[in-house]
TrEMBL record:
Origin: domain of life: Bacteria
Gene3D superfamilies per the UniProt record, alphabetical: 3.30.450.90
Protein name listed in UniProt: Type II secretion system protein GspE N-terminal domain-containing protein
InterPro entries, sorted: T2SS_E_N_sf, T2SS_GspE_N
Length: 230
C-alpha cells in the first residue's frame, strides 16, 4: 500500500482517524473513484481531502457525494461537471421549475428510486433520460425496451439532485391515497418483454404502499375492522 505524508496536519478525527509518528501524518492513498477524478484535476479539492471524504463516507455509512457536498463544501455543479466528463454526457442540474413529464412517460416511483433513471422531457433531440449512471442504463437497453418509439438522450446528475427531482415529480414521502392511485393509473408506457415485467414488479410495490396507506388511515380514523378485498 502506498502512503501520503504531509507535514501539516489537517484534523478530521471524526471522519478518518490518522496515525501519527514524529509529527508526520500518514494517510493511506486509496484509488479515487473515476467519476470524481475531475474534482481533483480541476483543483476543487485536494487528493488528501478526497481520501478524508471517502473515509468519512465509510465510517458514517453515507454516500460519498453527500459527504463531499455537506462536509467539504463541494458544489453540486462541480460534482456534476466531473460526472459529465467521466460519462461523456451533459450534466443536468436540478431545476425547481421543471414541469413533471406527461403521464405516458411516468414510471412507478419505486422503480425510479431503485434504478435511478427517469424520463424528464421530450425535445427535438429525443427523450431526455436523467440518470446517476447513464452508462449502466444505456448498456442495459432498458430505455429502448420501455420506450421503443423514442430516441433516448442521456443526461447525468448527482444522486442528491436526482432524489430532489424524484420528490419534485412524485411528491415527498408516501403521499395521499389519491396520489398513489394516480401513480398506478399513469403507467401508460410502451413497455415490452422483460422491461414490462421489471416495471410491473415496481407497480406491485406501489400497490403494497397503497394498501398500507389505506390501513394506516383507517386505523387513525378509529376503524375497528379493516377488510381488504380484491
Amino acid at each position: 500500500m502506498r502512503f501520503l505524508s504531509c507535514a501539516q496536519k489537517r484534523s478530521y478525527p471524526e471522519f478518518f482517524p490518522m496515525p501519527e509518528k514524529n509529527n508526520v501524518t500518514i494517510v493511506p492513498i486509496r484509488p479515487v473513484d473515476h467519476r470524481h477524478q475531475g474534482l481533483i484535476d480541476d483543483g476543487v479539492l485536494s487528493r488528501l481531502d478526497y481520501d478524508l471524504a471517502a473515509g468519512a463516507a465509510r465510517l458514517k455509512n453515507l454516500d460519498i457525494e453527500d459527504v463531499l457536498i455537506d462536509e467539504f463544501q463541494v458544489k453540486p455543479a462541480a460534482l456534476g461537471k466531473s460526472l459529465a466528463a467521466f460519462f461523456g454526457v451533459p450534466y443536468e442540474p436540478f431545476d425547481p421549475n421543471r414541469p413533471p413529464p406527461p403521464p405516458g412517460l411516468r414510471l412507478p416511483r419505486a422503480y425510479v428510486e431503485e434504478h435511478e433513471w427517469l424520463a424528464i422531457e421530450e425535445t427535438q433531440e429525443g427523450l431526455v433520460i436523467l440518470a446517476t449512471d447513464p452508462e449502466r442504463v444505456r448498456t442495459s437497453r432498458v430505455v429502448n425496451n420501455v420506450f421503443p418509439k423514442h430516441k433516448p438522450v442521456f443526461r447525468v446528475t448527482t444522486r442528491r439532485e436526482f432524489r430532489k427531482t424524484v420528490d419534485q415529480f412524485y411528491g415527498d414521502g408516501v403521499g395521499s391515497i389519491s396520489d398513489l392511485l394516480s401513480s398506478l393509473d399513469e403507467e401508460g408506457m410502451e413497455e415490452t418483454g422483460a422491461a414490462a415485467d421489471e416495471v410491473e414488479l415496481s407497480a406491485d410495490n406501489e400497490l403494497v404502499k397503497l394498501v398500507n396507506k389505506i390501513i394506516i388511515d383507517a386505523y387513525n380514523m378509529g376503524a375497528s375492522d379493516i377488510h381488504i378485498e380484491p
